[in-house]
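From: lab user (bench 3)
To: helpdesk
Subject: output format question, protein + adenosine monophosphate

Hello, I'm new to running complex predictions and I'm not sure whether the block I got back is the full result or only part of it. Here's what I submitted:
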Amino acid sequence: MTRIFRAEQIKEAAQILRKGGTVIFPTETVYGLGARYDDEKALEKIFTAKGRPKDNPLILHIYKMEQLEGLVREIPEGAKILMERFWPGPLTLIFRKRPEISSIISAGLETVAVRMPSDNLAQRFLREVDLPIAAPSANLSGSPSPTSEDHLMDMMGRVDGILLGGDSSIGLESTVVDMTRTPPLLLRPGKVSLEELEEVLGQVDLYQSNKESYASPGLKYRHYAPQTPVVLLQGSDENLIKFINCNQENCVYVVKELVYRACGEKKCHLFYPKEDIDYAAREYFRLLRTLDNQSYDIIYITEIPILGLGRALMDRILRSSGGHTRRLE
Ligand code: AMP
Ligand code: MG
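Helpdesk reply: Thanks, we reran it on our side. This is the complete output you should expect:
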């Protein structure tokens, strides 16, 4: 049975987790599905609840720096600078792990991912539990990450508790940077952007899953995908408008304001009003879930500029589409 908790009942939710249960909790990125980092049975429950492959590692969540020392072998200089600047916040750093950290968390790697969330309820929950919490996103493996309370219904009966916390303020998963490499390697783009990382660190390499053999294990899977096929549409605004006006498929188009104004609300869904990329990121997973319930045969999404948070959003769109793109000439 899954027990539901409001913020006032945070102590009860924390008790369930401390006793080896699994509890979903809010963060500023997406909801996480947490368990004690030092209890392998509890960790196993995360993988069962999500249907998550065992080779996809978990992120450890902490609320104070003292907790980091018990998890990692060393803290590189660059990591210190990043933590100073971006923690608490949507940035996950990869360190060499201490041997006592379970290989269930690291998926057999010698490294471990750590993040300090900034969300107020997440911090209070971590403080109540007072142990690092291992947590991936609280969705069924492969489906869009949960960014609001109603998205958690998929997990009813699969976890021991859910701590409700409203809508996620960022709505995309954290930026992940491997600090065991020189230069550091950006594995997953997020709200903390490549440009911001470079400003602090100088050079940062960009992981390209199709070109490199090194894998951040979870990144190889098709991700964030609704049941309805998603296709990325590429081409000029003019070509997009022409295509939307002629195409007869039972589909919906997720577009920017200019195309929306030209083609109308019957076929199109306005994605980023006034080109507000923060809004689009916050709404993206909710949008996928909503459109998935409307029996379209295809969800077409148009390209956005790969800059700042746009890089993270394009990454999620490409993963949702499983790489399916259609170029309009
Ligand atoms: P999730 O919280 O569901 O987004 O999943 C955590 C993601 O963090 C994984 O899918 C990996 O991409 C990344 N990750 C966690 N631990 C490591 C690690 N030790 N090395 C590289 N990537 C990691
Ligand atoms: Mg995930």
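A quick orientation on your result: The mean pLDDT is 94. Let us know if anything else is unclear.
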